[in-house]
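Ops channel
N.P.: pipeline sanity check, posting one input/output pair.
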């Protein structure tokens, strides 16, 4: 994971409830995963040396973004059949793709901001793929070799603005609505393509979504191959894999996220991404008082 702990800002190796700063071992690691992803630092050697720095409680580390400035953040909008049906869409023959901007992204634990212009802030539990090896026209059978790791994403969506246009860009790109993290797990620790894992969103004891990654229409490998047909994937790019049914706008009445709540996204094998909901007006008032 990346974040700020006793050893400062950097990249941390996580095992159980403890973490070791790889940045403290070698300054070339930097403060996010980019140097490791791009192969600028030999990771296995660093892991072998972790005893040279003190372990820190993982609970004491404030998470950061896995890759602070990804070149591309590509998202699948419709990738679970039951979610497609609850939204009133037809099953697509080609994935519904859109992009998010960097200012919409926040790390796990940071406030997820409900904008002042709309109360319709929705949640979307999603698997996030981080590209390791780039490429163009990647074959599906080779695609998983291009994955550096997997993490958790909450594709926070302001539905009112998503529906103002046929393009979803406004509703998917409000500032501070896309939590990601806190940890990145490499593929060797997980089932191939993240098949068969539980994915869930909740607020407190209220379960909002609960499904399996096996329900995805486009697998990780198929998605990477499809995306690479039109764009060159680069190390550090993010690909979000879509959300299962149970989103707030489809509930009766709609279930929007409210200030004061904490939304959790959990994916088996990856942990929990938890973020408090804060009203934009509250943030502005706090900034004005400082």
């Amino acid at each position: 994971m990346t974040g700020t702990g006793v050893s400062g800002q950097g990249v941390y190796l996580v095992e159980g409830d403890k973490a070791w700063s790889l940045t403290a071992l070698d300054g070339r690691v930097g403060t996010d995963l980019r140097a490791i992803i791009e192969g600028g630092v030999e990771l296995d050697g660093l892991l072998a040396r972790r005893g040279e720095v003190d372990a820190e409680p993982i609970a004491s580390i404030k998470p950061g973004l896995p890759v602070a400035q990804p070149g591309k953040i590509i998202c699948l909008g419709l990738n679970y059949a039951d979610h497609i049906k609850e939204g009133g869409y037809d099953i697509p023959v080609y994935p519904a793709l859109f992009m998010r901007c960097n200012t919409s992204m926040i790390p796990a634990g940071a406030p997820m901001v409900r904008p002042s212009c709309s109360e319709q802030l929705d949640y979307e539990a999603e698997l996030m793929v981080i590209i390791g090896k780039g490429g163009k026209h990647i074959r599906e059978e080779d695609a998983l070799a291009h994955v550096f790791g997997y993490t958790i994403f909450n594709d926070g969506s302001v539905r009112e603005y998503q529906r103002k246009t046929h393009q979803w860009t406004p509703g998917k790109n409000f500032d501070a609505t896309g939590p990601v993290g806190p940890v990145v797990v490499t593929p060797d620790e997980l089932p191939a393509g993240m098949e068969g894992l539980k994915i869930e969103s909740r607020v407190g004891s209220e379960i909002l979504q609960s499904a399996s990654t096996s329900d995805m229409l486009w697998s990780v490998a198929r998605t990477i191959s499809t995306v690479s047909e039109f764009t060159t994937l680069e190390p550090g790019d993010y690909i979000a894999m879509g959300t299962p049914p149970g989103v707030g706008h489809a509930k009766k009445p709609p279930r929007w996220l409210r200030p004061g709540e904490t939304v959790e996204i959990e994916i088996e094998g990856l942990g929990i991404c938890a973020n408090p909901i804060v009203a934009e007006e509250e943030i502005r008032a706090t900034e004005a008082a400082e």
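N.P.: looks fine end to end. The chain is about 15% helix and 30% strand.
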